[in-house]
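User: Hi! I have a protein structure encoded as tokens and I'd like to know what sequence might fold into it. I'm fairly new to this, so please keep things simple.
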């Protein structure tokens, strides 16, 4: 029989060894499937990207410092979702527009 040993003890040892590896592979497959399931669920439950955000400063009252298009990678961690009207009002009040995502251009405001 091919390149397998002819005696029963070594065949049983090989059978045990490979059964152990099949079990480990099955565990790895199950873990990978669980990760994919959790990733899919996370993507389904993720809230939608807001249209507009304002980046907030540091200090008392955390004043707004910059307007961004939602999802802008340059927005800091201190941010708040705002409406289109609030974004327009913020720009009109002199809060600067992000130079990367250009919310002023998107809103039709001349910068």
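Assistant: Happy to help. Inverse folding works backwards from shape to sequence: for each of the 111 positions I chose a residue that suits the local structure. Here it is:
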């Amino acid at each position: 029989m091919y390149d397998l040993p002819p005696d029963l003890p070594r065949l049983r040892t090989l059978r045990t060894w490979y059964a152990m590896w099949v079990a480990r592979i099955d565990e790895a497959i199950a873990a990978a499937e669980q990760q994919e399931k959790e990733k899919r669920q996370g993507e389904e439950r993720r809230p939608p990207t807001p249209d507009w955000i304002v980046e907030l400063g540091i200090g008392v009252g955390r004043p707004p410092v910059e307007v961004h298009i939602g999802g802008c990678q340059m927005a800091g961690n201190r941010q708040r979702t705002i409406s289109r009207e609030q974004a327009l009002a913020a720009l009109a009040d002199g809060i600067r527009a992000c130079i990367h995502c250009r919310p002023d251009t998107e809103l039709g405001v001349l910068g």
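A useful reference point when you look it over: Residues 1-46 form one domain. Feel free to ask if any position seems puzzling.
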